[in-house]
Structures
1.
Amino acid sequence: MMNDAFLKVCRGEKVDYTPVWLMRQAGRYLPQYQAVRQNVDFLTLCKTPELAAEVTLQPVDILGVDAAIVFSDILIPLEAMGVPLEFSEREGPVISEPVRSETAVDCLIIPDTKQDMPFILDTIRILREKLKDKVPLIGFSGAPFTLATYMIEGGSSKIFLHTKKMMFQNRKVFDYLMEKLTRTVISHLSSQIRAGAQAVQLFDTWAGMLAPVDYREFALPYVKIVVSEVKKDRVPIIYFVNNCAGVLRVIKESGADVIGIDWRIDMADAIEILGGDTVVQGNLDPCALLLSKEEIEERVKDILRKGEGAKGHILNLGHGILPETPVENVITMVEAVHKYGKKV
Ligand code: CP3
């Protein structure tokens, strides 16, 4: 039988213990991931279903987490939209032709996941079979605003000047781009759900870089559309914004089933802002996994205690796990959640 604690908490149901998974749980901190990655580049790994499924399963078996997240990347759909994408070892994602004009947005295709990204659906099908007696599978997408920043900036950024320039000086083009991204995200998520994803997470990594007024105006409306469309498919949707503290009050309006919290805000404060009728996910600092075993346990206990104030709590990191993380510390964290998060 599948362990369904994670799905139950997503739905707001009672469970015997607090479930845990980690953002970026498949990755370079695992020697077993490095071994697979040695022979293929990152994009090839994402596009080879047998290998993508293999690395998805690694943290489930090694760490004993309560959910698996399909191995892919939020930027995969950008390529399918017609925007060439590369991953450089040093710089991360590189988009050599940033999208900054109406003509560029005109050229963007709304991809059909089945036709243009069949590998992710094949990966999901393999995984559902392999995870039958284990844990649920999470599908995901980048949120429209975060995807827009990569397209407009041409990669990662610190201040998002080009994005804000388009928002403030060329609103028509920005809206046009966001509409195309929103349609892409909806179709990408519902294809993953049809292939077998049992929950989905929307990653809005950079939306916390917006002033609250701008978040409400330029990011939230599109998230609301995605959430209401995904809800028709009847699977839970988790919405994660990194640096969420300043916009948490507004995030509540997204309608998502679960709200992801980063570590820069105390979990008790986050729950107070959201209200006790919310299901939350988070929020251990990824760097806390560099602490001693005892200190990791203390931090876990603290977050578990604070999570009791919410309608439901899924323990997770406040952002992705870092490549420098010792695997035994991650195991300590997962064991601590299962040990101290028991409700009976
Ligand atoms: O969580 C998982 O285990 C599933 C796989 C997953 C990856 N990326 C694999 C990955 C998921 C859910 C993501 C999401 C993602 N990708 C986000 C949102 C979450 C976040 O971290 O904020 C973002 C912003 C990206 C874009 C991205 N992908 C960047 C900026 C980078 C380079 C930085 C880095 O960490 O290397 C990536 C590469 C990437 N995505 C790797 C992995 C395992 C490392 C690639 C490698 O093996 O070299």
2.
Amino acid sequence: MAPHPSTLLEPHTPPALATEPHVIVRGEGITVWDSEGRSYLDGTSGMLCTNLGYSQPRLVRAAARQMVELPFFASFAHRTSDVALALAEDLARVAPLPMGRTFFANSGAEANDSAFKLAWYYHRCLGRHERFKILSQEKGYHGTTVAAGSATGLEFIHRGFGLPLASYVKVPCPDPHGPLGQGMSEERFVERLIGRLERLIAVEDPDTIAAFIAEPILSAGGLIIPPPSYYPRVQEVLARHDILFILDEVVTGFGRTGAMFATTEFGLAPDLITLAKGLSSAYAPISAVLVGRRVMNAIAEGSPDIGAFGHGFTYSGHPVAAAVAREALAIVLEENVPGHVRETAPTLMQALADAFRGEESVRDVRGHGFLAAVTFVTGAGGRPEGDWGAQVMAEAVGHGLLVRAVGDTVILAPPLISTDDEIRTMVELLEKSYHSALAGTYATW
Ligand code: PLP
């Protein structure tokens, strides 16, 4: 089969695909249009990132103004731009942890790589030269660079690349429906997970472990919602060994869960928080690491002995991206986007429950804020394992809805500006897509 003639090497796509890619050409509100003129409700918010929809005029104006004023200046070697400084100030005002400083990068993966380096630098500043290991969860997703990809707990990100690197160690996935959690009370499941974590730390030797990274809700792994008591218990274990806790809020930050940050909502106290996606509502590539005060103080004190923080990117704190992020944050605050999500999320859950609960082929319906999922019974209807998600997703395209598939799960993550009516329409389209998949009208989209 000859590959299709496009010259674009597409991320997360089999290179041998012979079909043309689906090309999106325009967006407005929560709707996008393809090159054939067909419209779709975007139930994926791009990649869980276009939180404010596609035609936010304030974001466009902020970018244009900054392009005219100062399109670029680097933040290297103690010279920076006014707008990068101002964005760091804005973030310090809303940060859900006692703030030290903010480091800027361009993607979620770069933010996580930067957080690892900050953790290593922190331990070196304290004279701990053996602390390089990074703990993360099976099915966690932190990006695909060599370091963030090593922390990601999904096999297809590692295969063929010699990953994960040796110093990246996995802990079990906190999935109540997974092999460790099934049929257990929350209490016993969490005991089990914490027991495993403690044993792993003892076997690896705490003096070799720099940090633990995790998402509050595991998105790309299939929308896995850990039991509420899990992270508070993890934190206690980490604190005992001064293993830094990096909370990856790349997806959850800026309102997706119905709070400004999941950190506050779940009562967590991470040492570092990574942010991307909703930071600029995806209108410009920018990410950030919020460095807590305790870590920052240790770094500031210890660094004269070991030299400058040898890490950064040409586009760290890019002025146009920073100006867009400042405006996105202003909109999220002024329009109380987290409050809107909190008020509207029950409509999403109710509509999904009405449409899917009790269906023979449905294993469960779950969600939090504007992150929701339906998992189908593996093998139901004689389908191969992991086929349900892709099939429902393909049918959804035919019905004018974009959703995401992970194995037998479909994820619905509407833009955070979606109204009750728009949410109900999305769920109606998803229900139709499920019935098309059930009827076996194999989609050709
Ligand atoms: N962290 C989380 C939780 C994510 O979901 C993602 C991307 O989906 C990343 C990190 C990586 O972000 P990026 O694709 O911008 O590198």
3.
Amino acid sequence: MLARWYQEAVIYCLEVGSFQDSNGDGHGDLQGLIARLDYLSRLGVTCLWLNPIHPSPWRDNGYDVADYYGVDPRLGTLGDFAALTRAARERGIRIVLDLVVNHTSDEHPWFRSARSDPGSFYRDWYVWSAEEPSDRRQGTVFPGEQDETWTFDETAGAWYFHRFYRFQPDLNWSNHAVRAEIARIMGFWLELGASGFRIDAAPFVLEQTAPGVDPAPKDFTILEHWRQETQWQVGDSVLLCEANVPPSDVTVFVGSRPDGPTDRAQMLFDFLLNPKAWLALARQDAEPLVEALTTAVKLPAGGQWATFLRNHDELDLSRLTDEQRGDVFRAFAPRDEMRLYGRGIRRRLAPMLRGDRRRIELAYALQFSLPGTPVVRYGEEIGMGEDLSLPGREAIRTPMQWEDGPTAGFSSAAPAELVRPVLRRGAYGAKQVNVRTQQRDPNSLLRWFENLTHSVREAPEIGTGTCSVVDVPLPRPVLAHRFDGPTGAILLLHNLADAPVTVDIGRLPGMSAEASDILVDGPYDPPGRQLRGLALNGWGYRWIRLSRTA
Ligand code: BGC
């Protein structure tokens, strides 16, 4: 079977506005990103997921779109976007866009027309209620910032539904004109060279909302329709769903039949594994991961998980019990200001792990070894920190730190003109943490990350093979799992605690005489034929190739 690019990809998520400014206006832009493609190419990433780039009032970091067919003027032009996809393609890098179509901005011309004229063609593109809905205060997503999901609009003389903030009215997905328009929008960006879409808030898009109806039924044929339309247009384009749903509700996002091939979105963020990985790291105990991997939902053929440790939102721990969440909070977000919505953490990974290089390596080696396609957020490769003086989720959206200096090489504008302040103070400020310094240092985290991305690409079994936990007695902090795929078999050992250990794995099925380490945290004796007495440093990791068939 042909390799599918998304199963062997390394995805890098970035905000264009915070990455690199090319024209000195204090905002990152597409030309700036183009200038940094060689950096990304050397890093070894093969796909960029761009957070929203469309014209927007930016009241929710662009997740409030005012024109789906445009590029926000601060970020560039449509011409710049076409230049980006071309320049990226030349380097073997694909571009995936955020598709935010659960809602629009209330400044979108569709909503302006809908609210101001009951006879408007766009009136029925949104979800209205003439009466005050009984469930008006239910189903909010950002507790503390948002206290209702229906708001009365004076101009319209009616209530409108908004799953998120009140300035984000939900589109009415029961309306076939809406469906047809969004399909056209996807086609437009594919034509400009995009390789797919991250479907923002997917479960909510599918909901057929009506006042007082809870839970609203979901129409999954929308995903099938999108899949057909996008794949018809660009055969290897992909859909990646953001769907933080319980295990029983997962497969339907990927396929209409659990035993059939994927015919909806090809990819799904692994919101089930993510909190378990953090719990395991907090407790220094592999058990939560063993449990997660052995009970993992099996996706329809061709369906793929996207793994992550941190993303652009809060680290959502709502799937853990109170006790488990308490353990993660205590370990990684001890102060109140580090937490959000009573359920999450608004920090970057490096400070969560106290800047301990060994733990940072362990955490990312572990993520990259989990079943699926790894997704990394910009700046993680150099160990950037957060700015807790910024409100809410802004804390982890500070400009990329390219070098030392007042604007960290992000922009030639004055520091006060920047889209967000550069992190300057403390152990994670631009003086201590920046790309240029790390490029000069062969032992830097950046150089290590480059090695990681290339190692995972040389271990395609992780993206395409079958994962199983190795069932032998092990010290509690050690996770041992393996992948078997058409190209061979690999064994992955991770020690989640700081005490060195020795593990006995024994001879494994499918193992050739030539087992050898492919990614390690330090020098180890070769694994030998029996995999006995294998040393593992504190926070150590060893990826061992057991066999290679191709
Ligand atoms: C995104 C958030 C955004 C929200 C509303 C979420 O799914 O990840 O960043 O605020 O959607 O669009």
